[in-house]
């Protein structure tokens, strides 16, 4: 166990409203959701349907929440969900989802219906931030009556399609800032000690411990390994504190933890984790790895129908 100084709050005491307001005042816009995401979605409207499934209304501004759907939607076909940007700072999840739609989604016409929510947390995207404006992690709040509006809106989008999802892949990153900023902030917010961990160098997956589907996970790993390297376990046989159960795979109870990949009840689910700070990976490689993960997962899932 170690301690880490965080400039907000008192060690051992959870944040109240004043500390959260202090944290919020420190957040600044560092990039544009409109320029980097909405313009790319607009460019897809000629080939795909785009739906507005909600709007965030924070004091700093409003953000439309958009999803992309297969144009020739066929209720006889299974549905595959791709989500990105649940953590706004995880860039390749957003850009990888958009790249997948632009370059590859049309190839699945007649095989499955695609639903893609490329940027679930646009406030966080603009601020390169893990949390939303309420100092909540959307990826721990996919729960009934969620206090995170990003999470609640996405759950409302997928609910009418319950029981029809074949696959859900949620695109994420693990970054050096997890250890330098976000995990220390979490410990400070909750009044708990910060316990340092290592950041794995490479791509890995988080499967559902209650529905692991190991062959599916390895199909995704095999597809990504053609693009970038897979994270090895640490000296204790772990990745981010969890036992490695197969090459590049750890497991969490997705639904119990309120994680995005647990919202559909799909047969095949996984959370990707790309490491953009690796000296062995470029931003383009990270985007390509997310695309490879989606395609590898889809090809496996569709072959098992």
From TrEMBL:
Gene3D superfamilies: Zn peptidases. SUPFAM superfamilies: Zn-dependent exopeptidases. PROSITE patterns: PEPTIDASE_M14. InterPro entries: Peptidase_M14 (IPR000834). CDD domains: M14_REP34-like (cd06231). Residues 29-305 form the Peptidase M14 domain. Belongs to the peptidase M14 family. This is Peptidase. It comes from Stenotrophomonas nitritireducens.
